[in-house]
Fold this sequence. Notes:
Blueprint: H1 2-20, H2 23-30, H3 34-40, H4 44-67, H5 75-90, H6 94-102, H7 104-108, H8 111-131, H9 141-162, H10 168-183
Helix pairs in contact: 1-2, 1-4, 1-6, 4-5, 4-8, 5-9, 5-10, 8-9, 9-10
Pfam families: TetR_C_15 (PF17918), TetR_N (PF00440)
Protein name: TetR/AcrR family transcriptional regulator
Domain HTH tetR-type: 1-59
Amino acid sequence: MVENIIGAGRQVLAEYGYAGASTSRITATAGISPGSLYQYFPHKDANVLAVLERYSDTLVSHVTTRMSGQFAQPAPVIVRTTVAALLDGLDVEPPLLRAAVEDGPRLDDGRALRAFEQRIGELVLAYLTTRGRGLRPDTPLDTAVWMLVRTVEHLTVRYLLDRPPIPRDQFTEELTRLVLNYLRPPS
């Protein structure tokens, strides 16, 4: 039942956005009564948060899967792979991405976003710890991870929401170059 309700919430959120996602639409899509919905989710925001948490978990799993086994690769390969994985994972349902970016932080004070950034940051830290010798020795790792995760996240999200006239391959290469230049030791 919970899976059915979360799936319906996802479908409604993607189709109508947060403002148009009502409990009546969610119950109609799920094929259940309002009482059944309220048994598991006391209000619309609780359902939307469950949808966004599931979306975040799926995205982290997608990026983790794509990065696993890549740690032996040189920095340009792992950065390009990570950017491509993030683009692919975020671009599955652009309306859902918009809802996650615009409404998610307001609903839970940004906890889901911070949890996502933390989990991706752990992957970046693991890579930099094992393979980042010689990269940015002047910058503490926690600072570099924070900067990298938020830069890549922000630019990727804006690219997908704004849809600028930049081919995806070019965007991936430019963002990879930006990250690699940040990681390069100062001359």
